[in-house]
TrEMBL record:
Stored PANTHER family: GENERAL SECRETION PATHWAY PROTEIN A-RELATED, PHOSPHORIBULOKINASE _ URIDINE KINASE FAMILY
Organism: Celeribacter arenosi
Name of this chain's protein: AAA family ATPase
Top-level taxon of the source organism: Bacteria
Domain AAA+ ATPase: 46-212
Pfam families from the UniProt entry: AAA_22 (PF13401)
């Protein structure tokens, strides 16, 4: 069974449920619309720290890619994914993301001074620097505190540097720890992306089918309901189940993936489910005043 046969069977231009983030397929659920509004708010107001969280597979990286398409030409942007390490490593990640070259043996003071000079020179050229850090839950408390120290470059009415953190729910839990209260005070806005409800899942599935060139009903309503329940409303899991359902439907030469199709792929053990239920946090927007230094 090839990808061409799969798409040809249903008349798709491309696979509607690829697991790779693709802004062209971005579905604007209520939560995703608000998350994007928060990200844009942070960009427009030059907020020093903006935080967006969500469970694994809720579309955070896709939102980041959609945001990158909207960045103004006067922004110097650095994107960091999955940064890890000890003190000083973060600065190397940052400088590398901004395409700023430094000798490999540079000490921390030299790295910081070089970064500060770069940010100030960008400001003098009527530009401002934005760092977007994806999978930010991997930073840990020490690296988050180091990020806060980087925001000390900001002074007066103008913000020279802004940082956007995107990560899993653990990031929010980390930020609220007592030892990071100074960091939390610098956060202007936070938002958590909740999983889809059943109606959103139905709209999401139909949206992706139509974007791929289908009719929108290649998966039956009953099948979508079961997919929603099994996926817990998580878009990535929905994609995986829908993709497999279409493969099974195509191999049996069915015009639609129905409830029996979903039951069959589970019976065949094609989908691995995590042992623990995902941690869903109540959705809310928090706004804080910047800490006075």
């Amino acid at each position: 069974m090839t990808t061409n046969l799969y798409t040809a069977h249903f008349g798709f231009r491309e696979r509607p449920f690829s697991l790779s983030p693709d802004p062209d397929f971005l579905f604007w659920s209520k939560a995703h619309g608000r998350a994007m509004a928060v990200l844009e708010y942070g960009m427009v107001t030059r907020a020093p720290l903006t935080v967006v969280t969500g469970e694994v597979g809720t579309g955070k990286t896709t939102l980041v890619q959609a945001l990158l398409r909207k960045v103004d030409p006067d922004v110097t942007l650095g994107l960091i994914s999955n940064a890890q390490g000890d003190r000083g490593d973060l600065l190397r990640w940052v400088l590398n993301a901004l395409d700023v070259q430094m000798p490999a043996n540079s000490d921390y003071v030299s790295l910081f001074q070089h970064f500060q000079n770069f940010v100030i020179s960008e400001y003098a050229a009527n530009r401002h620097v934005v760092l977007i850090i994806d999978e930010a839950q991997n930073l840990g408390a020490e690296m988050l505190e180091e990020l806060r120290m980087l925001t000390n470059i900001n002074s007066g009415k103008d913000e020279l540097l802004q940082i956007i953190l995107v990560g899993q729910p653990e990031l929010r839990q980390l930020i609220t720890r007592p030892e990071l209260r100074q960091f939390a005070q610098r956060v202007s806005t936070t938002y958590h992306i909740d999983p889809f409800d059943l109606r959103e899942t139905r709209d999401y599935v139909q949206h992706r089918l139509l974007v791929a060139g289908g009719q929108g009903h290649e998966i039956s309503p009953a099948a979508v309901r079961m997919i929603h329940e099994e996926a817990g409303g998580i878009p990535r899991m929905i994609n995986k189940l829908c993709d497999l359902a279409l493969v099974y439907a195509a191999t049996s030469e069915s015009a639609q993936a129905g409830l029996p199709t979903i039951r069959e792929l589970f019976k065949d053990g094609l989908v691995l489910k995590p042992a623990d239920e995902p941690l869903f946090l109540t959705n809310r927007i928090d706004t804080h005043k910047k800490a006075a230094e």
